Amino acid sequence: MKRERKSRVWMPLDNAALIFPAIRRKNWNNVFRESVTLKEDIDPALLQQAVDELMPRFPSFYLRLRRGVFWYYLEEVSAPPRIQEDYAYPLTFMTRREMGRCCFRVLYFRNRIALEFFHVLSDGGGAMTFLKTLTAHYVSLRYGIKIPSTDGVLDASETPNPGELEDSFQRFAADHAAFCPEAEAYRLPGRRELGRFLHLITGVVPGEDLHALAHGYGCTVTVLLAAIMAECVLTIQTEALPKKRQKPVKITIPVDLRRLFPSRTLRNFALTVNPGVDPRLGSYTLQELCDTFTHQLAAEITPQRMAGRIAENVEPQRNRLLKAVPILLKTPVMRAVYNRRGERLGCLNVSNLGVQKLPEAMAPFVDRMEFIIGVQYSYPNNCSVVTYGGVTLINMIRSTQSPELERRFFSRLVELGVPVSIEANEEAR
C-alpha cells in the first residue's frame, strides 16, 4: 500500500480488478457473497465491534473505489462500514455511491453473518479468509473463548504480512504471454426478470454422496458438477436449435492460483478456464464429458500455462503508452475488449470453493457456510458451490424468469442417486 497526502493510504488495483470498474453498468456490477450461519442469533453490537477491530488487520479490504486521471484505485476508508440488517435478496445492486464509501457490506439476519464484496477487493479464496477471521473474532467476543489461528483464521492482533497485500499477478507472470484463441460458446436463452431481482435456488446435498458419485466417474466434484451442467445445457440447445446452428458448450471454472504458486495474497489471484465440447461433432455421455473436462483441465491448469496466461493479462498494464492514456479513454476500450472476449467463451460459471474447515474451538458455533456469485452482464445463469460440515450447498442464481436449467440440473443429480433438498428465495420477493 502507498501513502497519499493527508496520510490517506491508497492501493492500486490488482491486475484482475482493473477491468471491473470499467465494465460495471447502471444495473450490474461484479459482486459476490460469502456467509456463515451460527447456532444462535447475532448480537449486532458485538458484530460491529468485531468489524471495527479487524480494520488494522485487513487493510486490503477496508477500502473505497476512487477514480484517478489514469486508473481507478482503492483508498483507505475513514471509518469501518456500518453493519446492516439483511433486508432483501442476496447481491442487491452496489451503487457507485456505496462503493465510494466502502467496497464491501456486512449484513446480518437472525443467526447469519453475510459479507458482500465488489470484486475489486478480492476473490472467493481471499474473502473466505476475511469471513472466517471476522466470524472467529465475533465468536471470541460473544463467548469469551480463544480461537486459534488455523484453518484459514488469521490472528486479529498480528500486523498484516506484506505478502497478503501484493498483486501476485505481477510477481508470477511469465516472461512470455501464452495466448490461445477460443471459440464463442452457446448463450442460454431466457426472458430477463423485471427490475434487478435475482432468483436464487439452493440445492442442499450430502457431501459424501456427491464425492462418491464423482469418484465413480473418476473425476473431482468440480468436474462432475461442470459435466452435469454441460449435459443440461447441451440438451437445452439441442431442443432449441438444429445441429448446424449449434455452438460449443463450455463451462467456465475459476482456478485459485494460490494452489499453484506460493502466494499469500488476500487480493484477487484467480484465472478461469473453459472446458467444453462441440455438439456438432457428436453426442456425449456423462462419462465422456467427465473424461473430456478432466483432461482439458489437467492440460490447462499447470504453473507454466497459468504463468503464461497471467503474462497475457499483465502486459497491457505494463505498457508505458497505455499507462499515459487518461482513464476516460481507457474505459470504453476496456469495455469493448471485455464485450468481445470476456463473457463469450463460456455458457456459465461453476465456481467451487471446495471443502471449508474451521478450528475445532469455533466449529461448534457454526451451522452452515454459503457462497453465492452473481450473474454476468451478458449471460443470466451462474452456479457457486461450497462444502462445510459434510453438507454441500449448490447455489444457482439467474436474472431470467424460467428455472429450466436448475430444474434439469437438480433432477439429474437425483437421477444419479444424490438426494437434493431445495431452498429458494422466491418468498423474499
Structure description:
This protein has 429 residues and is an alpha+beta fold. It has 2 domains: 2-153, Chloramphenicol Acetyltransferase (2-Layer Sandwich), CATH 3.30.559.10; 199-428, Nonribosomal peptide synthetase, condensation domain (Chloramphenicol Acetyltransferase). Helices cover 32% and strands 23% of the residues. The strands form 3 sheets. Strands 9, 10, 11, 12, 13, 15, 16 and 17 form an 8-stranded mixed beta sheet that branches. A 5-stranded mixed beta sheet has the order 6-7-8-3-14, with helices on one face. Helix 3 (96-99) links the parallel strand 6 and strand 7 (104-109). The two termini are 41 Å apart. The relative contact order is 0.18.
CATH topology of the largest domain: Chloramphenicol Acetyltransferase
Characterize the main sheet.
8 strands, mixed
What is the number of strand segments?
Answer: 17
Q: Tell me what portion of residues adopts beta-strand conformation.
A: 15-25%
Low-confidence runs of at least 5 consecutive residues: none
Estimate percent helicity: 25-40%
As for the number of domains, it is 2
SSE string: EEHEHEEEHEEHHEHHEEEHHHHEEEEHE
Seen as an oligomer or otherwise, the chain set is: single chain
CATH class of the largest domain: Alpha Beta
Q: What Rg do the Cα atoms give?
A: 21 Å
- Shape assignment: globular
